[in-house]
């Protein structure tokens, strides 16, 4: 186990390194003259030169990269080119929206996917099971932004139950209103992600149903359904853990679009705004934080999977 | 003569549905080059927000543009982006798979690790990274999906390529004097083509979703280009007053993505003999648009 963790940890570090280099190359090197790009076409040569100086773009590339990464290790993610505000502080502020949104989305996705996925497997070859599968397949093809719009139409425009947009200015000081405004966005991401997860759960359940230990339990007198629920479900839980990393990536991507749709002041909306204004220093750090998060989750998922799967534990 | 795999594809209900809808979208894109019921960009303030009726079958938008015509013209953009992304994904996928399967050991393993790392990059983040430097455009979508999904194709194709490469007939061909490049073209690629085509179909589905999402965010199609995602963004602003008009672009996107996914599933069943005998359990891929 420890050996595995070390190897996997090395892969994580390699991953972080590769992504940071890729982001750095794309945002700093490939564009050519970054200072000109940021300053725009109307800037005078002197202004561009001043900007180049202040960004440290005259220094060797490796030193620039080392500055950036070194800063991150000290907790300094740089400052915005436009406002001069600290990127790290802003990220922490925005995380207060995005992290709860992500957790709620994941919960909803799992709450949808597990019962319906197992049901779809139990009802295989029957009309109900087919309907569930078709439903999941269709929902997985829905663009997340449109799913959000349709939920707004139903729950805000027609029923008037939930706010169509926005996040309370008071933030989590008014937890009721904060949760209320995150409910529709989380439901949107949760449904679309849940539909994808449901298909994993279904095929994992079907696979478990074919396993010897489930068939033996059935042969010893349990009904097939009971045997599956008592002995097969742990195996299903295991397979959910494997795709969890993927779900997290999906939720991050979903939150970028959904925060825009619901005008939530989160990390995704921050990224969209900064890409729009070409605040490259911010974009650079934000992208690294997001991809780093995906990589770290993937690492943790692999470790947990390894730790709870008895077959793999013995092999290690 | 109809090839066998095509007939098998047609024999499954999902494959048939996928094939028909995908062809229909392509045909619509083609027709829209010559004819749409109305000029998709012509606004007519007198005709704004018409309900679905004759002659505006799906109604009109906030400036009186005909929604059906906009959707038909948008199909062009969708076809352009998904075919473009498919081509890039093919190139990236073949290159990485070949590097990861056919080269010296250290190279193979480096590429494998690299692919494992790159696969964690969501397509949308790649797209935003590109557009923060070069600005948004449909090409951004093509490159982002192409690279993102190409990595995925490489991961699926690499073991397959390696298996074929170690088979006896390839060895025999090598022994009789074929260069590695020749054997790649003549023996290896045709043998992994089925796996490849399935992935390609799925990658085009991702491209359609990504185009819609990125155009919605403002990093895809420009205002003058007809796009389903852009139409969603346009209509969303009036969702409180005219909630039903957003249904059409959304349904169109969903149907197209569903069809491409099902086409991929169907192709997989039709070309993979092991699946046919087991009674197929198919899976659309694990890639985040």
Short key terms for the protein model shown above:
heterodimer; A: 316 residues; mainly alpha; 0% strand; B: 289 residues; MetI-like fold; 11 helices; BPD_transp_1_N (chain A); transmembrane (chain A); cell membrane (chain A); MetI-like (chain A); ABC transporter permease (chain A)
Note the topology.
The complex is a heterodimer of chains A (316) and B (289).
Chain A lengths: L1 H28 L4 H6 L5 H11 L5 H13 L13 H36 L4 H13 L4 H15 L16 H35 L2 H8 L4 H38 L5 H11 L2 H29 L1 H6 L1
Chain B lengths: L3 H8 L1 H22 L32 H36 L2 H14 L4 H12 L3 H28 L2 H8 L4 H38 L10 H9 L10 H25 L1 H6 L11
In short:
The complex is a heterodimer of chains A (316) and B (289). By secondary structure, chain A is mainly α. Chain A has 13 helices and no strands.
Can you offer a commentary on this structure?
The complex is a heterodimer of chains A (about 325) and B (about 290). With about 325 residues, chain A is an all-alpha fold. Chain A is about 80% helix and about 0% strand. Chain A has 13 helices and no strands. In chain A, helix 5 packs antiparallel against helix 6 (about 125-140). The model of chain B is unreliable at about 275-289 (pLDDT under 50). Helices cover about 70% and strands about 0% of the residues of chain B. Chain B has 11 helices and no strands. Chain B starts with a helix and ends in an 11-residue tail after the last helix. Chain B has one domain: MetI-like fold (Orthogonal Bundle). With about 290 residues, chain B is mostly helical. The chains are: A mainly alpha (about 325), B mainly alpha (about 290).
Under the CATH scheme, the architecture of chain B is Orthogonal Bundle
Report the biggest beta sheet of chain A as strand number plus sense, adding barrel if it closes: none
What percentage of the residues of chain A does DSSP assign to strands (E)?
under 5%
Quaternary state reads heterodimer
User: Total number of helical segments of chain A?
Assistant: 13
Helix percentage range of chain A: over 70%
Q: SSE order of chain B in H/E notation?
A: HHHHHHHHHHH
The share of residues in helices of chain B is over 70%
- Radius of gyration of chain A in whole Å, from Cα? 24 Å
**CATH topology title of chain B:** MetI-like fold
Question: What structural category arises from helix and sheet content of chain A?
Answer: mainly alpha
Question: Which descriptor suits the 3D outline of chain B?
Answer: elongated
> What amount of the residues of chain B lies in strands?
under 5%
What's the rounded overall pLDDT mean of chain B?
83
Question: How would you describe the shape of chain A?
Answer: globular
Instruction: Tell me the number of strands of chain B.
Output: 0
Task: Report the radius of gyration of chain B as a whole number of Å.
Answer: 22 Å
Name the pair of protein chains with the most residues at their interface, and give those residue counts: A-B, 56 and 50 residues
Structural domain tally of chain B = 1
Main location (chain B): membrane
Protein name (chain B): ABC transporter permease
Membrane topology (chain B): Multi-pass membrane protein
Transmembrane segments (chain B): 12-35, 79-99, 111-130, 136-154, 192-219, 239-263
């Amino acid at each position: 186990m420890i050996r595995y963790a070390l190897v996997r940890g090395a892969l994580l570090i390699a991953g972080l390194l590769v992504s940071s280099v890729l982001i750095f190359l794309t945002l700093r090197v490939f564009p050519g003259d970054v200072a000109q790009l940021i300053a725009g076409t109307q800037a005078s040569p002197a202004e561009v030169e001043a900007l180049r100086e202040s960004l440290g773009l005259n220094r060797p590339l490796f030193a620039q990269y080392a500055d950036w990464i070194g800063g991150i290790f000290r907790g300094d993610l740089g400052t915005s080119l436009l406002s001069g505000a600290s990127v790290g502080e802003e990220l922490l502020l925005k995380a207060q929206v995005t992290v709860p949104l992500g957790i709620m989305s994941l919960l909803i996705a799992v709450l949808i996917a597990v019962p319906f996925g197992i049901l779809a497997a139990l009802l295989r070859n029957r009309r109900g099971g087919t309907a569930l599968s078709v439903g999941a397949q269709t929902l997985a093809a829905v663009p997340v932004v449109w799913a959000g719009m349709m939920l707004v139409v139903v729950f805000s425009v027609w029923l008037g139950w939930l706010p169509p947009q926005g996040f309370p200015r008071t933030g989590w000081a008014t937890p009721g209103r904060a949760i209320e405004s995150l409910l529709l966005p989380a439901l949107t991401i949760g449904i679309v992600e849940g539909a994808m997860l449901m298909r994993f759960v279904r095929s994992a359940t079907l696979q478990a149903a074919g396993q010897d230990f489930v068939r033996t339990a059935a042969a010893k007198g349990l009904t097939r359904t009971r045997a599956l629920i008592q002995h097969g479900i742990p195996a299903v839980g295991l397979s959910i853990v494997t795709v969890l990393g993927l779900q997290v990536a999906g939720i991050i991507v979903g939150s970028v679009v959904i925060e825009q749709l619901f005008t939530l002041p989160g990390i995704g909306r921050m990224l969209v705004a900064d890409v729009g204004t070409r605040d490259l220093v911010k974009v650079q750090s934000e992208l690294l934080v997001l991809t780093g998060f995906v990589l770290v989750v993937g690492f943790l998922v692999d470790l947990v999977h390894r730790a709870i799967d008895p077959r793999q534990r013995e092999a290690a | 003569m109809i090839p066998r795999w095509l007939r098998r594809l047609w024999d499954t209900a999902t494959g048939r549905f996928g094939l028909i809808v995908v062809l229909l979208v392509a045909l619509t894109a083609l027709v829209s080059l010559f004819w749409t019921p109305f000029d998709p960009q012509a606004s007519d303030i007198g005709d704004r927000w018409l309900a679905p009726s004759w002659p505006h079958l799906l109604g009109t938008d906030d400036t009186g543009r005909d929604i059906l015509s906009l959707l038909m013209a948008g199909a062009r953009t969708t076809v352009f982006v998904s075919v473009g992304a498919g081509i890039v994904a093919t190139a990236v996928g073949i290159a990485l798979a070949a590097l990861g399967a056919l080269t010296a050991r250290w190279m193979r393993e480096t590429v494998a690790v690299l692919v494992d790392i790159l696969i964690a990059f969501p397509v949308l983040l790649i797209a935003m990274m590109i557009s923060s430097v070069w600005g948004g455009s449909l090409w951004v979508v093509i490159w982002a999906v192409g690279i993102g999904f190409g990595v995925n194709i490489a991961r699926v194709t690499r073991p397959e390529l390696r298996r074929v490469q170690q088979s006896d007939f390839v060895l025999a061909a090598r022994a009789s004097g074929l260069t590695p490049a020749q054997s790649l073209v003549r023996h290896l690629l045709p043998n992994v083509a089925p796996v490849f085509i399935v992935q390609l179909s799925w990658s085009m589905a991702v491209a359609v979703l990504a185009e819609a999402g990125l155009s919605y965010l403002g990093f895809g199609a420009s205002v003058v280009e007809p796009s389903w995602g852009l139409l969603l963004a346009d209509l969303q602003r009036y969702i409180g007053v005219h909630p039903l008009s957003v249904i059409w672009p959304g349904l169109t996107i969903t149907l197209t993505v569903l069809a491409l996914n099902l086409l991929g599933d169907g192709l997989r069943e039709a070309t993979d003999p092991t699946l046919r005998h087991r009674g197929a359990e198919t899976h659309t891929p694990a890639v985040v648009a």
